[in-house]
Amino acid sequence: MIPSARQIKKGGKRMTENVASLTEARIAYLEGLVSQARTAAAVFTQYTQEDVDRIVKPMVSAGMEQAQHLARLAFEETKLGVLEDKAIKNMVAAEFVYNYVKDKRTVGVIREFPERGIAEVAEPIGVIFSLTPITNPTATVIFKCIMAIKTRNAVVFSPHPKAWRCCYEAMKIMYESALKHGAPEGVFTCLESPTLADIAYLMQHKDVSLIDATGGRSMVKAAYSSGKPALGVGPGNTPVYLEKTADLEMAVVDIITSKTFDNGTICASEQTVVIDDAIYDRVLKKFAELGAHICNKQETDLLGRTVIDPETGFMRAMAIGQKATDIARTIGLSVKPDTKLLIAPIQGVGREHPLSVEKLFPVLAVYRAKSLDEALKVCVDVNHAGGIGHTAVVFSRNDEVIRKFSEVINAGRIIVNSPGSIGAIGGVYNDMVPTLSFGCGTGGGNSTTDNVNVYHYLNIKRVARRTRAPMWFRVPNQIYFNMNAVESLRQFSSRSTIIVTNPVLEQIGHLDIVRRYLPPETPVHVSVIPEAEPEVKVVMQELAALNFYKVDQIIALGGGSVIDAAKIMRLMYESPQADLEELGAPFLDIRKRVAQYPTEKTNRARLIAIPTTSGTGSEVTPFAVLLDKERGRKVTLADYSLSPDVAIVDPQFVMSMPKALTADTGIDCLTHALEAGVSAYASAYTDANAMQAIRLVFKYLPIAYEHPDDEEARTMMHNAACIAALAFSNASVGVCHALAHAYGARFGVAHGRANALMLPHVIAYNAAVPTKFTPSPHQRTYNAHKKYAAVADLLGLGGNTIEEKVHNLVAATEQLLDQVGIPCSIADLGIPKEEFERAVPELAKIAFDDPSWRMTNPRMPLLSELSDLLWRAYRGRGSAKAAAAA
Q: Which end of the chain is more exposed for a tag (fewer CB within 10 A), N or C?
């Protein structure tokens, strides 16, 4: 167990008694840990900034790769929280923190402000004794390991006893990566089977320079009472003011998203929401619509008696990190099975109102305020009831209200119009420093009010404010379209051109058409690659031709596979140092990922894409997909440097497409448009393209399928594919693509067909009230169902309510699939049920790790939901209509 504040204070009498109980063998063991750390810290002082940065980056990659594994270990060992949220926290602790620290200097002169005349010089602390919590175990270890290496410090870890195994595994993964890339041996060690005496001994050890305590009140107080310099965080009791001018839909979704994230175990999560009287009833109604249970007085009293200890006034361990439904069942409260949050109206703050204290589980107190003054007073009371210095949240469009709230609340993080827990972490909804440790200042018994970061390991402080995340709409420089657009090739001069294509297109004469329109003086070479999706081995073989002919122009003539191959060939031709495995690493945000695409070019070549299928849109996208045969999955590369310079969308190249290919690529195009349309990254720019593409597909795909020689239908479908690609290039796609990638690679299903079999089920899934909302600073509120209804209106499908319109859209999509000969189910592909059943758990994991949906799908998929979607698609399309109707 962790020592209490009472055990370690007042002259250290109790600490001395604990230390006196240690055996000689145990003391020798503890001295060995400190000795290793002290030696490592001494060696570390000789490292340069370049040495440090070379170690940190692969550590971050290791953390990202093992994020889900560590989340599962933490979930299984602690029995707290939500596995998927823990995986996201691990990724944030690695990727978002790295994005912040990667360019920070932490050796020598680290920052200079000429206009202020200040220079900051870094000096490592030495040996840090770090205590980690049960609520965020592996993410905290990842975070602290990165902080320590970046600042040239050594750490002795003491995990919470009930989270020791997962913390040890996290430390081991980070340590092995650090050691491999040059860190001093012994830079991380971990205390086994920690006792009160062990912790007391290390807290007062002369060679421990800093105690870094993240966890409960007792641990933090013990750290500050030890006589050593300490970094500790205080308890949280986050008040939220929901003021009458606020965007209510955004506020309610943000609060649910935050309070249910990892079942409320983040100490910055909302605890009591003070709501203006004028909007109180509307707000509670909205909460109920989105899956919250509003307690009556008897139920509120029951909650107060059971989840809060009446003797201590603090929350009971039995509720921490548990689901709302489990808490309800345990205390005998009847709620709906899909309830995600319990909301309890209270009449005041203090011991007589037990639910006004900190609750690290999905129970939220609400208070009805008759005036601004009353609202601010209650927020202050909540703030002082165990949460001084921590976090507070205000939802308002009134700057004067925000100012008054900020002045009266004592909190290190005042989060404006954003979720408390995720907003406080930083780097997602605002520009605050990403962290897993929240300082609470003197009010919370801490040394800082900052989000703890590298500068605190060097004793430096900073402050930040929220900014709106910038968006973009990036497209190729030139797009030529309609019949005979290939003639535009005449204007592109070249010293040496290579045409990348496949054997079939060479045989049917498409290659000759392209040759005909190239300037006669252009030396032309041909690279013929297999029709299948590009493999790394094939791409590298063909790369030799580019180097041999020293090309300055690449023409990709083919479907998405050929164009993707050409993109990767150009990448490797221009930047031979590029590491495809690193560039294909998982990421949450394309702007914050660990992997950086090369900007220095050894060679330069123009890339012209001429698609011969109407679906992938690869001619204008920044994506390329590689087939990893050894692992049986697809690897996606994403960067705008991959986008072709020129796209030629000429329908003469698709007039001979067979019916099955017409159907598969056409539905692929529709999937791109529908997923871009409901993406969290969607904008007015992408919506315009997505809606037009959807309209064209529904109108012209059946014609192109039944009448392949219809020039207008072929032209419109070819244009639709490109237009849809312009949308998803900037808004991305979602879980339909993630699932299609997973089971398509596993069972050899063509990408378009794999999407088609998932599409109606995903529409119904995304249109339902989410189990978990996707954290997104780009969207005010969850609106996928409304956007699907808008699509139904565009297509004239009828319906009086949003639900009816969504149902009609699902039915129309299924009818379109029937029209173009798409099988009804995955089972119809001949995949045995037993084989599919064995594959589903792994397919769900692969889909969860797929970058296609991350931060863009309108609802965050749980692993169980991904599995359910796979089974719905296996059973067939009827289940999608049933789900939409429900």
A: C
Cα 537 to Cα 569: distance, rounded to the nearest angstrom: 11
Task: List the beta bridge partners of residue 627.
Answer: 535, 634
pLDDT average, residue stretch 439-458: 85
Res 542: pLDDT: 86
Spatial separation of the C-alpha atoms in residues 5 and 234, rounded to whole Å: 13
Q: Can you read off the two tokens belonging to residue 780?
A: 């005010």
- Distance (Å, whole) CA 847 – CA 852: 9
Q: Cα(82)–Cα(100) distance, rounded to whole angstroms?
A: 26
Pair of tokens at residue 473: 């709409």
Q: What is the largest CA-CA distance in the chain?
A: 93
CA–CA separation, 259 vs 253, rounded Å?
10
Residue 877 is predicted with a pLDDT of 79
Tell me the pLDDT of the chain averaged across its residues.
90
Contacts with 247 (C-beta within 8 Å, 6 or more apart), sequence order? 395, 397, 417, 780, 781
| SS3 state of residue 113 | strand
Band of residue 633 on the pLDDT scale cut at 50, 70, 90: low
Strands 230-232 and 210-213, sheet pairing: parallel
Active site residues: 267
288, 256 contact by CB (below 8 A): no
H-helix segments, 575-678: 580-583, 659-678
Please state, as a whole number, how many other Cβ atoms lie within 10 Å of the Cβ of residue 470: 7
Q: Tell me the C-alpha distance between 524 and 494, whole Å.
A: 9
Alpha helices (H) in 121-247, listed in sequence order: 137-150, 164-180, 196-203, 217-224
Nearest to 794 by CA among 809, 810, 779: 809
Q: Which of 590, 881, 878, 571 is nearest to 732 (CA)?
A: 590
Which residue type occupies 410? N
Contact assessment for residue 398 and residue 245, using Cβ atoms and an 8 Å cutoff? yes
d(CA 384, CA 349): 10
Among residues of the chain, what percentage have pLDDT more than 90? 74
